[in-house]
Amino acid sequence: MKRPFSPLFSAAWLILGSIVFRLLSSLFPEAVPNISPLMAVAFVGAIYLPLRWGWLVGSVSLLVTDLAFLPLNYRTDGSMFSAWTLVSLAVYALAGVMGLMVARRPSLGKIAAGSVACSLLFYFAANTFSWWHNLAAPLPGMPVYASSFAGWWQANTTGLPGYVPTWTFLRNAVAGDLLFAFVLVFAFDRGLLWGRAAAISAARAA
Questions:
Q1: Which of 104, 20, 103 is nearest to 55 (CA)?
Q2: pTM beyond 0.90
Q3: Cα distances (Å, whole numbers) of residue 53 to 12, 138, 150
Q4: Residue 75 pLDDT more than 60?
């Protein structure tokens, strides 16, 4: 009889896989632009991992890659880097809360809708932070957003002139989050994908 993976083993391979993928995406952004498994791990992990610690798995992966490796790749400013890391952790925690809500009665529709909602949450948080930081600490020679709703809206739609429009990051994020969400559902609850009531759902309903 095949033994199921232990919760610690599942968490460990999720953390390792997230770290490896995120580092590869940072080194080869053209191949996997703005696609990361972290949000799916935080959201879907909160549905299926014991104690709903999926958001914690995503946070650990974020901290390892951000604090240890990504500064070497992006050479980011320390103050901005620390502030954004805290904002990211808060977003992943909110994604975990959304996962807890879905965990009561999970369905493919709820997981898909929740994944898109998590993508939007992260997108607006990231662009709002970018808008704020651009005003608070503008870089020499770089365009500056207007300190108004119009400037915030520009940050969330077209972005700064001369750069890739920010809406393309939302497109990539939604695609990536949905992809990884269903990969994790396949790993944790294949019965849900096949249209059958999964054992974990039945146990919770009881």
A1: 103
A2: no
A3: 12, 37, 38
A4: no
